[in-house]
Amino acid sequence: MRSAKELVSTAVLNQGIKYIQQNPAKNASKLVNWGSKLVTRENHKEYAKSFQEFINNKESNWYQLTMKALTEYDNDLVKNFIINFFVYGTIIGVPIQDENRERYGCNIPWAVLMDPTAACNLKCKGCWASEYEQKDSLSNETMDRIIREGKELGIYMYLFSGGEPLVRKKDLLRLARKHDDCIFLAFTNGTLVDEQFARDLRKTGNFALAISVEGSEEETDMRRGEGTYKKVMNAMDLLKKEGVPFGFSTCYHRYNTESVGSDEYVDHMIDKGCLFGWYFTYMPIGKDADVNLLVTPEQREYMYHRVREMRDTKPIFTIDFWNDGEFSEGCIAGGKKYLHINANGDVEPCAFIHYSNVNINDVSLLEALQSPIFMQYYHGQPFNDNHLRPCPLLDNPEKLRQMVHESGAYSTQPIDREDVDELTARTVEVSQKWAITADYLWKQHLKEMEQQQIAQ
Known about the structure:
By secondary structure, the protein is an alpha/beta fold. The chain has helices at about 5-20, 25-35, 40-55, 60-70, 75-105, 140-150, 170-180, 195-205, 215-225, 230-240, 255-260, 265-270, 295-315, 325-330, 365-370, 370-380, 395-405, 420-425, 430-455; strands spanning about 110-115, 155-160, 185-190, 205-210, 245-250, 275-280, 315-320, 340, 345-350, 355, 410.
């Protein structure tokens, strides 16, 4: 049964959204104003205040993005995402997460990432998922239990990866319909999106996609196989036609960074209909890992500046997980903001950290968060005072090595059972090189923050 607070919040936003839909350009700022009155946390109030300033400026890229969402996408879908994200995921969920973090003395995440299946219809270069047993999968009952237990902890955001999660798209749609107070998002190669699935997503109302693209047609097909790019572009067209929110997911590496960070690439993604973009840097995971794909410090700095520039100028919301550490106060894994459950059920701190002490088929979600490797994260975060060096593998390999040894966590990779000493040895040199650049950027950041405080 919904609480009085949930019902009031939902009713207020429903009223506001209905009002906005009459005249989006004129009434959008009023919805933000109403929504800001519902939040209780000080940082959320600051976010609402900042967004209010942007939405009142018709020249702002954020205003353009908001108008795009309100006018080019299905109204009921937009309403569902706003309510689920702000009411359940933020206003209701975050305080419950905070209470449980204090109560249980462990991390409680904002989101859970899980792999419904290890099966995939592609075999992409540098992807460790192809090493997993294709038969591995999480049962519908297990995924449903994870979500039910998660909501009790205040978690209303659920992400799917793989393998290719849309191999089980019918099962995932059923989960999303059952848990209609949550938001679901699948990281997908996009090749299994057809007209029927696009229509089903519109009807479901709380399920979005992040579609993998590697840059140009040549760059994408080089890593993912010939013809993949055209299938991805077609998937975006189908989703845009149905008014379903989606974005792009791009892994940048040594040979495509300048391409995927370019105006040409991002503008093309915006034209295709993307509302958001998730950037990931290449990680040398698995027996076939190619360290030559790791970005140089110069390329990582390039992305650091480019993503921030995009957020100031482009009508799309972009995130770079390894370069946005100052906003998240370091690494977000280990349950701080999210965790990963692979298709075999192993509960891992991160999609890129394949070590665990427990399997979700044997323990509850809370028990997994209290397992030794997760408690190492809880007590060790942030792993560096410089939040532009957040990652315990890519930026602080000695920290990951220490945590795995002290927790007694086992390797969850099915073929090579990767020894943590061998894994971290691959990133020592690149972490040392990045430290020089990151320390310079961090000093600049602290200086800018100090100047802003003085100005206020």
